[in-house]
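new request in #modeling-help
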Amino acid sequence: LVLIVDFGSQVTQLIARRVREAGVYCEIHPFSKAEDAFARLAPKAVIFSGGPASVPEAGSPRAPQAIIDAGVPILAICYGQQTLCQQLGGRVEGGHAAEFGRADVEVLATNALFEGVWETGRHYPVWMSHGDRVTRLPDGFRVYAVSDNAPYAVAADEARRYYTTMFHPEVVHTPDGARLIANFLHKVAGIAGDWTMAAFRAEEVSRIRAQVGKARVICGLSGGVDSAVAAVLIHEAIGDQLTCVFVDHGLMRQGEADEVVGLFRGHFNIPLVHIDAADEFLSALAGLDDPEAKRKTIGRLFIDAFEAEARRIASDGRGPVEFLAQGTLYPDVIESVSFTGGPSVTIKSHHNVGGLPERMRMRLVEPLRELFKDEVRVLGRELGLPEAFVGRHPFPGPGLAIRCPGGVTREKMDILRQADAIYLDEIRKAGLYDRIWQAFAVLLPVRTVGVMGDGRTYDSVVALRAVTSVDGMTADFYPYDMAFLARTATRIVNEVKGVNRVVYDVTSKPPGTIEWE
Ligand code: XMP
């Protein structure tokens, strides 16, 4: 087992995921509780995450000294590197140019971390994200890699098995990062890798049974992969104690409601209740334009709909519905709340996490809470979901409402739905659907002047978004060729009444997010 000490980085769970990929079981614990966890779990290796705090500032988090002194191998990343070096007698300073994004490191010497991956004298791309830096290494440390702005990109004390990186090896934008982490686990710490998704399925089924007991559960299906996988997994665990509910909020894409209901009832043969709640959602959203207010309103209405359905189900006299199941994923958790009690910052209230009203009476079952999107896809295949369904692009719970900055109206949803359908149609025709992680149209609250035929137009702008990603935590915009964009823009302007201009979003994440709200 590996202990990950969390200093509140947005990407701590990516470390866990890289460790799982290497076939090793791990647990994340916040720095404030790490000493207890360490004593209880007796891990064979420890990883310190990054974090948003600044080591030179008074009161910033420190790693438990007992862990540092225990003699187990430690991999310390970014903030973890800084606090470890400071605690071992080195020095950390702020005030340097902050560095975000890609950097190239040069390898100066080899060590166990680099074995079979990095060679001396060569350059490799990595992902940096930091303000402070270590300016003096502790005794016994040596530099193994440098970059222009990072004199200690990799520094280690091989004798004491302390390995530190200034960059983030856990993100996919550090292409060799997973192999460096695997080397730390297998070569430095000597841990074998035999953990699998089949093991996860079996563990989750017994965890769900233990959590739920004889109680009844309803599961909100959104039409996306996550809630479907959650539903099938929970059904495997508790059978007809589960009822699935599909709330159509009028913020779905074209044809989606029919597809979801048909596919779910047909393929899975799990009972499904279909609720048409478009009027309630659209009237509650009228006049709201703050993104968080929109998200929270949608979250509240979902819960109202689920609670009403729970009461209806319970009226058969076979007992109350005590649990609400959701397909919440890790990125939803980390970007919504500081779940560790550590210092990570709220980016958005995802409706199925931070958007839940406090007064909700049902308890939550969230079997995918530890997983990332692509891990959910692996689990979906493991559970026998059809490939076409497993490969669907993600679709957010709040639906098209968060792709329409400003107020939402039925008319705007209609325009957006049409533009989005044309865009996805062109993507499919070009054979690009599976190469893109997620693609959608956004309807901007901006009108611009155009000319069509001999007339002046004054209509809306549609922005197109397409990204590649592995887990939704970081993403790059998709580099279409211009002919594709031109073809799609022409179709949208010609076929969708009310739109006279199309733009393409070329922002990566970070600094953008994938959705616009
Ligand atoms: P962002 O915009 O935060 O999105 O970069 C990352 C991924 O999460 C999806 N997303 C959501 N999924 N409920 C969901 O189920 C939500 O409230 C929500 N908000 C964003 C988004 O579509 C992308 O795949």
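bot summary: The chain has a mean pLDDT of 91.
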